[in-house]
Each structure stands twice: as C-alpha cells, then as structure tokens.
Description:
Blueprint: E1 3-5, E2 12-14, E3 16-18, H1 30-42, E4 47-49, H2 58-67, E5 76-81, H3 96-110, E6 115-120, H4 129-142, E7 145-150, H5 155-168, E8 175-176, H6 191-198, E9 201-204, H7 243-250, H8 253-259, H9 263-272, E10 277-282, H10 287-295, H11 303-313
Parallel strand pairs: 3-10, 4-5, 5-6, 6-7, 7-8, 8-9, 9-10
Antiparallel strand pairs: 1-2
Helix pairs in contact: 1-2, 1-10, 2-3, 4-5, 5-6
Amino acid sequence: MQYRTLGHSGIKLSVIGLGSWLTFGNTVERDATRACVMDAWERGVNFIDTANVYAKGAAEEVLGPILRELNRDELVLATKVYFPMGEGVNERGLSRKHIRSQIEHSLRRLDVEYVDLYQCHRYDPTTPIEETCEAMNDLVRRGLVLYWGVSEWTADQIAAAVALCRARGWAVPVSNQPQYSALWRRVEARVLPTCEAYGIGNVVWSPIAMGILSGKYTDAANPPAGTRAAGQYRDMMEEYFTQPVLDAVQRLRPLADGLGITLVQLALGWVLRQPAVTSAIVGASNPKHVAENVAAGDVVLDARTIAEMNRILEPVTPFEPYLA
Length: 324
C-alpha cells in the first residue's frame, strides 16, 4: 500500500480509502461489513470514510464495534455533517448548533473519543461561513476533531474558508472530498488547482463512477439485476449512464488487459495519477472487491496510457473540464 500526506497537514492516508456510502449499514450485512473492513486493514488501508447521513446513522453504528478491533493510533477515521438528520428546522446544515449535536451523535455511534477528519458534506448558503469555520475550529480545540475539511465546495468557497481561518487564527481546512473520475472531471479546471495552492488534499468519491468504469454494464437499457443501475440509484447515474459511455468503457479493456490489470484498477490508477488527490474512496460489499481495489494502489500509469484513456473517454464525458 502507498500512502500520501493529506495536503499541508502531517497525517498520511492510504491512497485507497474504504467508503461506506450505500453499503455498510444498508445493502451490506454486518458480517460482510466486518470482513471488508478487516481485509482492507490487513492490506494496509488506514483510511475509512463514512458520514452521519449514510443510512441515517446506521453506517456509523455498524462500524463502531468493528473499529474497536483496529489500532486507533493508526486508523484515520473520517465522517461528515450537513444533510438533514431529522424533521426539525435545526437538524440540518452547518450551524454551530447542528455541528455540535451531530459530532456528539457521530462519536457515540462510532464509539470513539475523536474523529481524525470531520468534513462539511456540502456548503450551507443559509449559515454564515464565519459561524461554520469557528464551530469547526472549536471542535479541533476541544480535541473532538483532529482535522476538518469540506466536500463538494466550489473553488471560491474553499478559498474563502482558508482565508478566513488564516486571518482569525483558526484551524484551517485540510481536505476536500469531491466527486472525481475519468467520467466526471469538473473539478480539474478550478477546484483541484485551488486545493493545491492552499495546501488541501483531495479524498475523492465515486472514482469508478458508481461502477460504470468497472465495465460490468454493457446495455444501458438492460442493466444487470441487483446492480445500482437496475434499482433506486439509477437516477444518480443518469448523467453518464448512456450507451455511448458504456461502449467507450468497453474500448478501455485492451488497455487494461495489456497492463495485466482490471478496468477498476485502470480507473483508480487514472484518478491517482493526479498529485492533488491524496486518496480514492471506494466501497466494497465483499473482500474480493477490497482486494481488487487495494491492488490499484500500486498501479502507475504512463503518459501514453493516460492519453489513450482520455482520447477514448473525453468525447462521451458529460462535462468537460473547462466547464467547472
């Protein structure tokens, strides 16, 4: 396993992170969750990502007992706050009140005294950024959070938060969690360069484009039963779940075969080529998936392979980099 430093912080993350969105506490049973976590840990994955909203707290809850079996001093545990966790008007967003209540709930569910990385899951236009940044700084000063970051913030929002925290002497955000894959490149134009300029590491989600880059889908009209595209998550994939995209992914197979790797590993290697990326977060429903994902941490793609991937995929990507 390879490790990279998270931005300008001192903490190091495995280049492959284990995520829990749509899996743990949801579609994956408790025993399978433990098997995935333990296998990832044994293979060198030290970064585990979750969020309070994943399965309405169930993802954190199922992870709690499992994390007790790991070396807490080595584990880098991340969770997030923003989305509604109840019907009340204050049970959402990035107000000081919501942040304080949700960190306490997350710590209880995860059964830990602190989280290593606490991220603002989205930007909250209804709360002053000063309130959010100061609340995160307070959590750092109390020792409940070691580092804080953001997810899906724009370049301007990230820059504003860093400038404000530096001016006030508050803990500065050190991470960003954007969607990023060879099919979703919107962050390349401004977000990634801004993160590099301000010393922020990116822990990216959906690097396999919700499974599309794995090559398991070949017919947009008839996705395999039991897959995300065949169920309730199809709407989330509509931007790039088209026949031209699926056909283009199949044209990547000769590249992967020539390197002796899978399409999943090719997709992860493409994301990790980017120096602004610290870790690629990938979900898993069984140890077989974990093994395939972790092996991608050692994949190094040469310039010719990357150029050929781009040539094949760029005509069908829904958003070109310059549109970010």
